Structures are given as C-alpha cells and as structure tokens.
Amino acid sequence: MKSVLFAGVAALALFANGAYAADDAKTAKPEPAKPLVAWPEPNLDVFDAGFDYAYGAKFMSDYIVRGISNSAHRPAGSVYEELRYGWFYTGLAATNVTLATSPLAEIDITAGIRPTWGPLTLDFGAIYYAYPSNHQQWFIGGAIPVTTFKNSYTALPTTAFDPSYVEIYFKPSWAVNDYLTLGGQIAYAPNWNNYSAHALYSEINAKVVPFANTDYSGLSLSGAFGHYYIGNSSPAYGGSYIDPDYAFLATGILGTKGFKFASYNTWNVGASYNWNVVTLDLRYYDSNLTRAGCFLNTSDPAGNYVASVNTLTGQSSSSWCGARFVASLSIDFSSATFK
What we know:
Layout (H helix, E strand, L loop, with lengths): L1 H26 L23 E10 L3 E2 L2 E2 L6 E10 L2 E8 L10 E8 L2 E2 L2 E2 L2 E7 L7 E3 L2 E5 L8 E2 L7 E6 L2 E3 L4 E13 L4 E12 L10 E12 L33 E12 L2 E10 L3 H8 L2 H9 L14 E11 L5
Antiparallel strand pairs: 1-4, 1-20, 2-3, 4-5, 5-6, 6-9, 7-8, 8-14, 9-13, 10-11, 10-12, 13-15, 14-15, 15-16, 16-17, 17-18, 18-19, 19-20
C-alpha cells in the first residue's frame, strides 16, 4: 500500500513539474533580435577599460604602403607592441625595408587616444616614421646618374639626408552590425619624407564578415580606396619633368618653389581568415601612379640608370608601384588572449 501511495505522489510531482515547465515555456520571452544597425553610445569613461596590451608579428611577401612597395617587392617582416590604458595608447613597430637611402629599418612610434563608443571607435594620434642609418643620394653635377656623396658644388640631392617625419591622423571605424564595418582615415604630414612637402592622405574602407555568428566567422572580405596628395619639395632638390616650371621666374632666375611630387589614387581588396591568434591575408594592391611618378616619389636607385640611358627624354622610372598580389601571415596576442 505504501509503495502504491509513493508511486502516485511521484507521478503527481512529475506531472506538476511538466505543467509548470510548459507554463514557463509559454510565458518565457524570446531574446530580442539584434538591431540591423548598431548606433554609437557616447560616454566619458576615459579610464574605464583599464590596462591592456597587444603585440605580434607579421610576415609579408611584399611591404606595400599606400600603393608603393617599401621593400622593393621583396618579402618583409615586422614586429609590434602596443600598451593601452583606457582610451590612451602608445605603440612601437619595426619593419625591414628596401628604400633609396638604405636605412637599417623603418621604426614606427605611435601615441594617441582611442575613444570607444559602443560600435564606434574614434582614433586620434600621431606617428613618427624613423629611418635610422641613411645614405643620402646626389645627382652628379646636377645630372644623372647619382652617387651617395656630394661630389661637386652643383650636385643636387635626390633624397633627404634623413627621410624620417611625423604624421598626425584620425581613423574612425563603425561596426554597423555583425556583418559590416565601415571606416576611414585622414593623415597629414607637414614635412613628408623630410622634403619640406605637405602631404594629405584620405581613405575610405569597409570590411564584410559574410558568415558572422557561424563556425566560419573568421572569414572576412575587405577593401579600401585612398587619395594621396603630396605637395612641393624644397627648391634644394631641383626640378622635375612632372612640373617643368617648378622653380623659374619669368626672367629665368631660379625661384623659391620646389618641384611637385606626384599625387595619386590607390586601392586594395582582399580576403582574410582568422583562426585564434593567426590571420592569413591575400590582397591585391594597385594605384594610378605612372612609372615616372613612382620614381619621383620614391627616388628608386634603379630609376636613375634608366634615365641615364634614356637620353631622349631623361625620364627615370620605377617599378616599386603598380598592381601587386600580396600574401601575409599575422600572429597577434593581447591581454585577452591569456584570460
């Protein structure tokens, strides 16, 4: 009799639990769907994020910056670190380069403030591009080819003694939703490559994650389009066939205006796949720089030889610009990696 009574009580309890569960299922509210557009959330929590850090390395088949190869289309590698406290950050990076002045490396020193307002990130900062241990190039007697020393009073420098310079920038980005991020960049250098030339780079970019919130969310597609305006050099660097009236007044006397560097458009598009701390990127780069304009902006030493044998036009040219496919592999760590 006791066993029958116990079985009945147990059945009643199971029925009641099932009924309550059914009621809970009926009354439970579904999770709200994510909005189609994530809007910025302004705040003044300058130090709320606390201390953070990031560091890593990158290996590239070519080191292309704004449409121009800084490694003469050779493989390159870089390492970096960044320290952050709230919105404030400072960073250091080093990359091997092949440039006209043969520096040991490119050293980038950055500092700035990066407010994060929900999906919107506002990045204001400055970067110092340092190129230690340079060898200045000179046109022999003001004509081609060149030497790495000033061999006569009339010799003209084709590069700055030290091309290091400072650039200030603003890089906003907006994660519109899980699938789309929009961004841009404005960067200004008052003394580009130490030529006394003003330079302004502007860019729009976008990133699409087609399989967000799935097992394939590491795949992304991205691209950018930019315009680089570069002004006039110091008159100390002589003239240029790009701007034949660079420095002469109506009387033919040397004026105070240096030659105009080549301004141009540049773009890239590619695909990346991220797995844990490793990212593989395959990208296509291009620009509308001519080979002559490329030499003007880079002082590619090989271009001087081309001009020396081209006695009809005297135009140098460089292959450091133009269409290029680049593969890169990045390894990135941060304080969140080890939590």
